[in-house]
Each structure stands twice: as structure tokens, then as C-alpha cells.
Amino acid sequence: MIESADVQQLISHWWFAYDNAIYEEWPEFFADDAHFVCKTDTGMTAFEEFVNADVRGRDEVLAWQVQHRQGSPSPLRHGGENIHISENRGDEADFRSYIRVSQIVNGSPSNLSTAVVCGTVRVQGGKLRISELVVVLDTEDSTVLGERKVM
Question: What is the total count of domains within the chain?
Fold first, then answer.
């Protein structure tokens, strides 16, 4: 069984390496057949083209990630929160979490975005790796939950 602490370690390590552009560490995070999706919850922002991704295979995932990171602010911080396993299948597990993304503006931290992150990790080559990572950026204005329209 995959342990929650191992998933927490993997995902936290990924965000740290991503934020700090430690490119040489990136290939070890992803399974050979990794799938990465990134989108906004509304699909109606001015930056859709920059954030939208649906790529498969480690090489394609890494190519998109490098291009995206090089076009992003620095310093940039993705703070993974409440990473937890939602289903465990022995050598593969699904997880869910939030991220808070910040940058520095005029010398002070500034929230850039929040997102829901879901994915799957599995053991490949004796190591825990990300096989699917889906990031949905929050862009819809918050409203009272009981008054929200169901889509």
C-alpha cells in the first residue's frame, strides 16, 4: 500500500523543484506514461492559452512544464495543502489537494491563484511517481454555496 506520507513527500518535492526550476530533478517525478492537465474552472480568463495543457508522456509533460515555468514569475511558490489519498489500490493511489500560488509584488507576497489538484501516483521502477496530475485553477468568483447554480 502507498502511504500518505510518501504521497505528501512526492507532491511537496515536485512543487519545490518546479518553483525553483530544478530541472534536473523533474524527470524522476513522472511515470513514463504520465498525463498532465491544467485548466481554469471557468475557461474564460485572459490567460487561458498560457495555462491550458493536456499532455501525455513524460517527455511531453516535461516540455510543457519547462516552457510554462520559464514564462512564469520568479520567485513563485506553490504551497500544497491537505494532500491526502482518496483511493489506494496497492501500488497505485489517487490523491487530492489544494495549492496556493504566490509571487512577490512590490516587495510583498501576493496571491496569484488557488487550485484544486487531483492525481494518481504509482510505483514504477521501484519509485513512487506521478502518473496523472490535474490542476484546476480557481477563477470563478466565490458565492454563497446554497445559492450557486448547479452545472
Answer: 1
Cα(151)–Cα(148) distance, integer angstroms: 9
Structure confidence at residue 149 (pLDDT): 72
In a domain, 56, yes or no: yes
Q: Which residues is 128 bridged to in the sheet?
A: 123
pLDDT tens sequence across 105-123: 999 999 999 999 999 999 9
144 Cβ contact list (under 8 Å, min separation 6): none
Whether the CB-CB separation of 10 and 3 falls below 8 Å is answered with no
